[in-house]
Design brief:
The protein is mainly α. About 80% of the residues lie in helices and about 5% in strands. Its EC number is 2.7.7.41.
């Protein structure tokens, strides 16, 4: 019995070493987080709003703190306020509210940083203030604005099922890339950006995206099977792009994880990096499938 337990522990340690995290704990935490997400989407759509706010706010704080640690003086308070505002604005006022919240957020962040610079004893150079503003704008657009598309999609008729569907595909893509990369990975996909990703993992993710995309289209979204052939690969592209973008940001900031707030997962931004651009793609696919227009 003890020998079997030792073998199991050794095998688990080997898997953790290859994956770079406590896989069992990460899976358990992911299941709990997924249960909360499902509850908010399926039973009362409005419950998804505080869930989305929490994810976007924590991701904003993580990225802003990481940039401040790298020397960029980005204002966290207005960034968090904008993150809180854009989610309900997107849900209740849809595209118009989304854009108003974004533009007001950019304005407030700009004024805040200019006032900070003007009252500072050691006034920073104009180029530094401009760089701070660009860094803050990146956070606002990439995290808050892109994150609001998932809420915007939830607000549509049967939108909660589309959110659930695209999340299933994105998670499946991540799992497919992980499993194939772990077992067959040899050729690096982007060694200078993310050394752990391989072409074999990408191939596994592509196969998974097609299979799961078809299943989601047929049984969850009431679409034709061929719609999954389009939806799956498109979400594969956006999920991979989001993952690589975050890897580029972390590499530039010289950090491994955005934070350690989520045990076994790193930070909130580490968990939603592939979801952010995929939400915008899913929103576009929703209207394309319905042959509708935004206006």
């Amino acid at each position: 019995m003890r020998e079997q337990r030792d073998k199991l522990r050794a095998r688990n340690d080997a898997i953790n070493a290859r994956s770079g995290r406590n896989l069992a704990f990460a899976v358990l935490f992911g299941v709990v987080l997924g249960a909360l997400l499902l509850s908010s989407l399926i039973f009362i759509k409005e419950l998804f709003i505080p869930f989305a706010i929490a994810m976007v706010v924590f991701a904003t704080i993580e990225l802003a703190s990481a940039m401040r640690g790298a020397g960029r003086d980005v204002p966290r308070i207005p960034l968090v306020a904008a993150a809180v505002a854009i989610i309900p604005a997107a849900y209740f006022l849809e595209v118009v509210g989304q854009w108003i919240a974004l533009l007001v957020g950019v304005l407030v962040v700009t004024v805040w940083r200019l006032v900070e610079a003007s009252v500072s004893r050691d006034r920073p150079p104009r180029k530094a203030v401009w760089a701070d503003f660009l860094a803050a704008a990146l956070i606002l657009i990439y995290v808050s604005y892109l994150g609001s598309f998932t809420v915007l999609l939830t607000a549509q008729e049967d939108g909660q099922w589309w959110v659930l569907g695209f999340l299933i595909i994105v998670v499946a893509v991540d799992v497919g890339a992980y499993v194939f990369g772990l077992n067959f990975g040899k050729h690096k996909l982007a060694p200078k950006i993310s050394p752990g990703k391989t072409w074999e993992g990408f191939a596994g993710a592509a196969l998974t995206s097609v299979v799961v995309g078809i299943l989601v289209s047929l049984f969850l979204l009431d679409q034709q099977w061929w719609f999954g052939l389009i939806m799956g690969p498109l979400l594969l592209i956006t999920a991979t792009a989001g993952d690589l973008t975050e890897s580029m940001i972390k590499r530039d900031l010289k950090i491994k994880d955005m934070s350690s707030w989520l045990p076994g997962h790193g930070g909130f931004f580490d968990r939603i990096d592939s979801i952010l651009p995929s939400g915008a793609m899913a929103f576009a696919l929703y209207f394309w499938s319905a042959d509708s227009t935004l206006w």
